[in-house]
What we know:
Elements: E1 5-9, H1 16-32, H2 38-41, E2 44-48, H3 50-59, H4 64-78, H5 82-96, H6 106-116, E3 128-134, E4 139-144, H7 155-162, E5 172-176, E6 179-184, H8 187-190, H9 194-201, E7 215-219, H10 230-235, H11 238-241, H12 244-265, E8 269-272, H13 288-303, H14 305-317
Parallel strand pairs: 1-2, 1-7, 2-3, 7-8
Antiparallel strand pairs: 3-4, 3-6, 5-6
Helix pairs in contact: 1-4, 1-13, 1-14, 3-7, 4-6, 6-7
Amino acid sequence: MDMRRILSLDGGGIRGLVSCHWLAGVEDALARAGKPGLLKSFDLLAGSSTGAIVGCGLAIGLAPMELARLYRQHRHLIFPGMAQRLWSRAGRMFTQGLSAPRYDGTGLEEVLRKVFGDTRLGQSKIPLLITSYDTISRKPVVFKSFKPEHADLPMWEVCRASTAAPVYFPAHPMTVEGRARAMIDGGVVANNPTACAIAEAMRKDVRVDSAQDLVVLSVGTGERSRPIDLKSAREWGAIEWAIPIIDVLFDGNTDAVDYIAQHLVGDGYFRLQAELMTGLDDLDDVTATNIAALEAMAQNYLQREETQNKLATLVTRL
């Protein structure tokens, strides 16, 4: 199996909308160069968290802007507003206590079931790798469409497992390889799954001799710039850190993987990422104002000369 050309998709909640716009820009660049679309231009697709949803959507043949439309259309179902959240939490208080997850996950599951239906992971049109984490065994789980033990897993459940961000959503119970699991967000393992994909490409049974032979496109969801000041970082305890620590951990492993991939792959590594303005970086801000701002940021990034040059160079390597 040849996995020389890798497409990797970060996590980031509703900011997966940004990735969809950037992927549409990649498709436009491929078309201008007379090359086929994303599925025929890459050999391996990796996704974490919201990147798992985008990746699985691409893998069943949905176009990037179709996926962007799904994010816009279903965002209030996935991330309900305050009134619905409070009503849900009141009902869960007796079983989950006062510190129940922010969302009950029913809306997310409804959307995933609607999008993916009865599709199995093994039906992916491209080799697909999705990250998650099992809290029972305390080990990462990397779902692979090309692994016989994972081929029959429902695609919607794999996405649900990879998007169960602690604090935001409950863990998802699954049976994987004959073991009962409690699955949480793939971002805990690798919010940027590029390193996982590179490792897969370098396996002994895969025909890649060196990381320098790879072409890797790593697509972000926007980079947070909101600071946590020294006073807060010194004085916060468990309650104050509850949500910010998730963001910090996701951001930290995203940037670490970016650093590693740059040095491993060299000139064959391409990263699409842009700094987010403070206020655009929440995983679950689905207000119309934020959605419009995210889409404007994504389009502005695509129109930069530097980005266009990067895409032009990328398509010559694919």
